[in-house]
């Protein structure tokens, strides 16, 4: 296996493959998180290679720039929140969710333990850190704030921070009052005892992190996409069925976490990971409700308009 790291226009490209001639698939990742574990495992264990596929992965700062790369054709498949497929379809750029990666909302709002902010109602005149405009974090925050009668555009400030380390740094330095963190960053940050959860989205069934592709790519690459998904679902099933394998890959992905934190993730992660790549209709309904609250024109986009099971392996 060879590992090549390239810096291309500020985007980190990670190419993993074998010496045999293989078909290249370019995958854009909005955020490395538990949802990307199956792709990591499929690479490490040679599942993509078994399908004659080489995967080149590009890391972006949030969903919006990742989807821009998908729309431009710079990448073939996007690891993004499902709402981006809805928006693309509403704008006449036909896109499909081809597989689910996580089936629960992954984020929680965190503040310093000493913060005067105790709940959403305390966010008036405060600064809230999101990953990027139009992202899952942006949409979800706007939904719960609007539900309380708080105008996100008038009553507080939204700051586009990115994910993980930059979000924690912004919170620690006071650049933001509250930040949105995903699993496992929530567990890692909370483990110190110096932070508190202001609002937890993680109990929501939600079409969260998915694999998304444009129809034009799918129609030209039917067997390639099926092979890609066979590899991903094979890895996804392994992570559900073998907790020792899950613990190992979590330890590799988060090698700065202590044993207690990894053990907690072994308990938490299977609750969020999709099974067999399926996207639940209940999770999709919740997503559309959230999107429709701010963008009513999206409410009419039904499950079958956006989600396809045509490329998934038979259960």
Describe this structure in words.
With 315 residues, this protein is an alpha/beta fold. The chain has 2 domains: 204 residues, Periplasmic binding protein-like II (D-Maltodextrin-Binding Protein, domain 2), CATH 3.40.190.10; 94 residues, Periplasmic binding protein-like II (D-Maltodextrin-Binding Protein, domain 2). It contains 13 helices and 12 strands. Helix 1 crosses helix 9, helix 5 crosses helix 12 and helix 10 packs across helix 11. The chain starts with a strand and ends in a 9-residue tail after the last helix. The relative contact order is 0.18.
Strand content: 15-25%
* Computed CA radius of gyration, to the nearest angstrom: 19 Å
| Overall shape | globular
The overall pLDDT average reads: 90
Brief summary of the model shown:
With 315 residues, the protein is an alpha/beta fold.
């Amino acid at each position: 296996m060879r590992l090549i790291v390239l810096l291309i226009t500020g985007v980190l490209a990670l190419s993993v493959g074998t010496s045999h001639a293989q078909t290249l698939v370019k995958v854009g990742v909005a955020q490395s998180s538990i949802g990307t574990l199956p792709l990591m495992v499929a690479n490490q264990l040679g599942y993509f290679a078994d399908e004659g596929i080489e995967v080149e992965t590009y890391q972006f700062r949030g969903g919006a720039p990742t989807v821009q790369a998908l729309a431009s054709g710079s990448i073939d498949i996007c690891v993004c929140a499902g709402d981006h497929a809805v928006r693309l379809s509403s704008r006449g750029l036909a896109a499909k969710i081809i597989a689910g990666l996580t089936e629960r909302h992954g984020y929680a709002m965190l503040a310093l333990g000493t913060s005067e902010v105790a709940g959403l109602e305390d966010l008036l005149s405060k600064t809230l850190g999101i990953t990027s405009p139009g992202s899952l974090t942006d949409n979800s925050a706007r939904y719960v704030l609007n539900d309380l009668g708080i105008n996100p555009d008038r009553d507080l400030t939204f700051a586009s921070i990115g994910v993980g380390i930059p979000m924690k740094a912004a919170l620690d330095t006071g650049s933001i009052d509250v930040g949105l963190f995903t699993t496992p960053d929530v567990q890692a940050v909370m483990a110190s005892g110096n932070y508190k959860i202001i609002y937890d989205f993680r109990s929501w069934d939600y079409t969260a992190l998915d694999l998304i592709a444009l129809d034009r790519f799918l129609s030209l690459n039917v067997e390639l996409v099926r092979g890609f998904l066979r590899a991903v679902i094979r890895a996804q099933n392994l992570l559900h069925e073998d907790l020792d394998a899950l613990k190992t890959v979590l330890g590799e992905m988060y090698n700065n976490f202590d044993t207690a934190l990894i053990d907690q993730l072994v308990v938490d992660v299977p609750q969020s990971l999709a099974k067999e790549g399926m996207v639940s209709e209940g999770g999709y309904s919740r997503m559309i409700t959230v999107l429709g609250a701010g963008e009513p024109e999206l409410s009419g986009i039904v499950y079958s308009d956006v989600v396809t099971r045509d490329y998934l392996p038979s259960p």
